[in-house]
Amino acid sequence: MKRSFTYALLLIAGILMYLPSMAQSNKNEIYVDAQGRIRWQKDHTEVYLFGVNYTVPFAYGYRSLKALDKDIEKEIDEDVYHLARMGADAFRVHIWDTEISDTTGNLLQNEHLKLFDYLVYRLKQRYIKIIITPIAFWGNGYPQRDEKTAGFSSKYNKGQATVNENAIKAQENYLKQLLQHVNPYTKLNYRDEPDVIAAELNNEPSHSGPKANVTAYINRLAAAARSTGWTKPLFYNISQSPYYADAVAKSNVNGFSFQWYPTGLVAGHEQKGNLLPNVDQYKILFDTIPEFHNKARMVYEFDAADVLQSCMYPAVARSFKLAGFQWVTQFAYDPLATAYGNTEYQTHFLNLAYTPAKAISFLIANRVFHLLPRNKDYGTYPADSVFDAYHVSYNDQESMSEMNTAKEYYYSGNTSASPSDAKKLEHIAGVGSSAVIGYKGYGAYFMDKLENGVWRLEVMPDAITVRDPFERPSPSREAVHIQWSDQPMKISLADIGDDFEIKGISQDNSYHTTASGGTFTIKPGTYLLVKKGKGTEKWTSQKMIGNLGLNEFIAPQSFSKEPYVSHTPVIEVSAGKAFTVNAKIINISPDAKVNLQVNRGFGPPASIPMEKTTPYDYSASIPAAQVNAGILTYRITIQDASKTYTFPGGYEGDLYAWDNLHNETWQTFVAAPNGKLSLFNATIDKGRTNPYFPVFTRNGGAQFTSGEETGQLTFRASIPAIKKGQEMGFQLYVGDKLKYRLPEVSSYSKMVVRARLQNGQAGKLRVALSNTDASTYSASVDLSNEFKNIEIPLSSFKPDSSLLLPRPYPSFLPLWFKAFSFSGLNISKLDKLEITTGRDLNTDQYNKPFGIEVESVTLEP
User: Fold this and answer.
1) What's the predicted TM-score (pTM) here?
2) Tens digits of residue pLDDT in 645-681
3) Are β-strands 617-622 and 480-483 bridged in parallel, bridged antiparallel, or unpaired?
4) In the predicted model, is pLDDT for residue 26 greater than 80?
5) CA distances from 303 to 80, 123, 185 (A)
6) Are 214 and 247 in contact (CB under 8 A)?
7) CA–CA gap between residue 465 and residue 357 (Å, rounded)
8) DSSP state string for 196-213
9) How many alpha carbons fall within 13 Å on the CB side of residue 113?
């Protein structure tokens, strides 16, 4: 009896001790179960959230808006609305502690903290959940220089922050104060804020020293957070420093954070070619660590950097779902006020107004992440380009993604796919045209069913890409131009018929018309589409549609007013074959005259009128008789009222005036009949090549250097002591080089590589060609120490793997990819050229200097 009584007392005491923490945990919206799955408290279902990072309260995001004299709270309102419109339901950012703390970790009550509080308040109103990462470990400068700030990160660098005792004490102090800070807008502290569902203790830590100390450091931060009464999940980065993964796994956190940059970072130009293999899978190396199991997994940052294609995000979401992640946030969403120049992070570019196709792709990715079955493997690309209700597509002309279910029909580009059940549709979003909506505008649009016969339509203005948004940025440089234009639209939807009303409901939008045969003219704004005879009295401006206001609409105005021609010349064409010059032209009147001025070897230039094919697209065909072997140069002139402009350069005035000093031209190489096709020339392709090198040192690496001939460069890769398994080389997108030489493709029977070895070694060069379906075929040749033209029959190329370049990050992710199927090398569908060396060396060649030089690669009859 005594034993039973004692047991009962202990049980009661235990329950009483547990009650406070149980009550506290009931304020939490999520929990991590014993198997490491994040679940909702309300119904215990698994949590899946997909969203963005967004930085406006801090650093450059804050400074850039201040420089434009913007009301930052209003800018936050507008951006958060667009995030909701894109379907985002997750937000994460590494807080710039250096701007809201002092050197000992005391929290500073300043404008940065107030703006972050305001952002959290607005995110809550849109039902967007939040994970905070309190510590960033760095200054606030990028892309500018760091400012002098008061925070502990200004005193201790990333390396010191995890080992210096005073730095750790500052972090503990700061964490306690931040988590107990009361948000003046919500009247809650972050410990008790239900929409702040978790915390990632810090951002991309730099660890050193004994592993036990790493575990102890993490536990100290976790203990500091929990000492405030924080009972929500805590995450810690495990992928940043894989060497310390086991030490991180042993810490007292609830889960681990990962990142993914599958196309590298900061290329300085748009990455082209089929990059879907780069996002085909996310492999985690840490399954052999016992403590890694039964912990939750989140992705704090990801992006297909330097990529404009709209096929990437849904494939990323699919791979994350298979890998077991439950929270994914892209880095980073561009603020509306500065997205015209993509100045915040030049390697990232996502904004609803300025990258409409990527924004729709993001919306589809959100649905993929929510709805796709967990742990379902859809195979290897291209087999997995169609998965469940989703489709991602790459070709060298256009990329797109789509979602097609009974209720949702989304597409990021023109699609011929019919809705799976048009009668049940409730949500449509797209760019371009489909079986339901015909539209030639350049912006995104959204249709949401309110009731039978009544739909909400939102149309964004046209977004015209006029410069490479991934080049060096500047606030004075417009990468994407916004134009508010009236555009024809046709809607074929039985629910509203073909003579429905269109009523403007956004602010200052009094537009009212009736469709004829489903066709009408539309301008940017928000509208009600109403079946003939249907009433709309209940749809007042105060109505909310989910987390969107009925009459809400946000869109930017044009940044520039001056005429501008965006044109990329064709690299190479065939002699005696007509070809078309295409250009995008903005800021000219509808009746402006545009002419292509083609320079000829003899006689005056030929003036060819350019035809307007869309409000911004112009084209002209250069006749075959004027396409002669050599260099073809040309310019574009615009006569708009009394003014004449000439491009490239954008100079105003008479092109042929005697004192005109401007002679810039575009040029295209015209190959001789049945001439060689250049796939790679080191001099020409220097800025377009993605090199790969295992370890860069003072004495080794990949570079472009002088060749044997004046003016001719070579690609050089060398290493002081090559080791087994090390390869080096490069990859290059070549699809644009074939476009206008296709008539001659069938005549090519061989490849000619001009290359040599360095350092007196013997060795092989591997040459690989990838088709647009990512199937790769390779052949190997022996090199000598002298430059030689080495012929390789195309018939000798065999199925092989290809490098995933730019190198995915984290670096533990796969480097090689092998396609699901091989249909045979097809020169007319070439996408990439790859050159590597280091494979198949003799044993006695290892641990010795090794290097190659490649000057050119051509296809020949």
Assistant:
1) 0.95
2) 999 999 999 988 999 889 999 999 999 888 899 999 9
3) unpaired
4) no
5) 19, 22, 32
6) yes
7) 12
8) EEEEE-BSS----S-HHH
9) 21
